[in-house]
Design brief:
Distance between the termini of chain A: 37 Å
Oligomer: heterodimer
Largest sheet of chain A: 7 strands, mixed
Number of helices of chain B: 0
Shape of chain B: globular
Radius of gyration of chain A: 14 Å
Helix content of chain A: under 10%
Largest sheet of chain B: 5 strands, antiparallel
Number of helices of chain A: 0
Structural class of chain A: mainly beta
Largest interface: A-B, 22 and 23 residues
Strand content of chain A: over 45%
Distance between the termini of chain B: 37 Å
Number of strands of chain B: 10
Strand order of the largest sheet of chain B: 1-3-8-7-6
Chain lengths: 117, 110
């Protein structure tokens, strides 16, 4: 069964450094998402991406963050100048949903645990 | 806040019993989805109910939706130890964005 994959599973970085979190969505999916979940807290939407551009973004997704689909398979989240409060699990998700499809389920990757020290 | 709110926050039951979790939301929705998250792991999609549906079944799962009350429930029948996880309801709003609550932590005691 196809699945969303994410690398690395755990990333430790020092405050002020840049990190890139990588995701490979399910191949025939059209929409891609990034979420984060601070330990013990609720899932927070960061950004959605469709047709090579951001379709929605939350207040959290400020200039510190950027997303890119550098090739036909990868979807990346870059966090510049990381802060302690960026420590969280970051989940990538993809969905088949589009105008011609009514499939709204999102399929999540296993997450990348980001620890900023 | 437009987030979904799950109730209870935590639920502990004996294996074999039924578990019921409730969810309320504030916005108009396109559909409502339930997800499960095992500790420290990713979210797994369980079931989706559309705004024009009132009840849906999938295996041991039964979901209801009352759009007039802006509420939903998830029933897990004949619970098993492997059902131990956090359960999240995620209404999808008119912008097709999922709105997440804090989840219900379900513990099934063997």
């Amino acid at each position: 069964e196809p699945e969303v994959t994410q690398t690395p599973s755990h990333q430790v970085t020092q405050m002020g450094q840049e990190v890139i979190l990588r995701c490979v969505p399910i191949s025939n999916h059209l929409y891609f998402y990034w979420y984060r979940q601070i330990l013990g807290q609720k899932v927070e939407f960061l950004v959605s991406f469709y047709n090579n551009e951001i379709s929605e973004k939350s207040e959290i997704f400020d200039d510190q963050f950027s997303v890119e689909r550098p090739d036909g398979s990868n979807f990346t989240l870059k966090i510049r100048s990381t802060k302690l409060e960026d420590s969280a699990m970051y989940f990538c998700a993809s969905s088949e949903w589009g105008v011609l499809s009514s499939s709204y389920e999102q399929y999540f990757g296993p997450g990348t645990r980001l620890t900023v020290t | 806040s437009q987030q979904g709110e799950e109730d209870p926050q935590a639920l502990s039951i004996q294996e074999g019993e039924n578990a019921t979790m409730n969810c309320s939301y504030k916005t108009s929705i396109n559909n409502l989805q339930w997800y499960r998250q095992n500790s420290g792991r990713g979210l797994v999609h369980l079931i989706l109910i559309r705004s024009n549906e009132r009840e849906k079944h999938s295996g041991r799962l039964r979901v209801t939706l009352d759009t007039s009350k802006k509420s939903s429930s998830l029933l897990i029948t004949a619970s098993r130890a492997a059902d131990t996880a956090s359960y999240f309801c995620a209404p999808m709003d008119s912008n097709y964005q999922l709105i997440w609550g804090a989840g219900t932590k379900l513990i099934i005691k063997p």
